[in-house]
Amino acid sequence: MLNIDLHCHSTVSDGLLTPTQLVEHAAARGVEVLALTDHDDIGGLEEARKAADKNGVLFIDGVEISVSWRGQTVHIVGLGIDPADPQLVEGLSTIRQGRTMRARNIAAQLDKFGIHGSFEGARRNAGNGLIGRMHFARFLVEQGYAKDVRTVFKKYLVKGKPGYAPHQWVSLSEAVNWIRSSGGRAVIAHPGRYKLGKDALEELLLEFQTLGGEAIEVVTGSHTFEQSLLFANHSRRLGLLASRGSDFHGPGESYFDLGGMPPLPANCAPVWHDWSGLM
After folding, report:
1. Where is the Polymerase/histidinol phosphatase N-terminal domain (predicted)?
2. Residue 155 has what DSSP assignment?
């Protein structure tokens, strides 16, 4: 069975490794098929593809798009996209402009709580990439406000906490349309993370499918074993394809290392079922 990881991040968004380092790490971990899915940015794909060619890894062009759905942020992964597609490129550019505004709003909220210099600290952590919540989390760890980034998110950066800043992302239909227009396959990322009741989750899945979405992440870093079984059942019941991805951000910050997740549960149709040479 091939070791396939279809969700990870580089320094282009909020990962710790450059695209080249990420691919080299994946190869060392025995990953045979890898998708780079940076948040709202495809700037690392060319570098990653070159590194994959050198390291014998089959590379899939990807992205993770931020979506607002009924007041909640949902992430949609695009797999097998065309990074040169004009509609996708323009749409992602619009989101990135909004990310800068959100970063300043997060910093303003932390200022009110007495935590100063967070925008500069997050920007330093981001380097030349987009500033995201993970960069604020790393700054707060550096300053001693929490022991690790997971604790920062729980104490400071989620809804109802001091550093939370609401933001309106793109719609679900826009994200799915951009992915499909570029020849890609749309996947709901880590569905178990969203605070949705049973009925709302069903409505999200059905709306996503109606719009042309094709898959859900069944095995992913933040899913428990029970959640993987639950979403495997959802994928079979609705005829959605099943994806597998670590959501790796860097050593010490992720639930699973690259390629270290369990296999897909039995009787799921893999998102890669019709990819040449993989079945």
Report:
1. 4-69
2. I
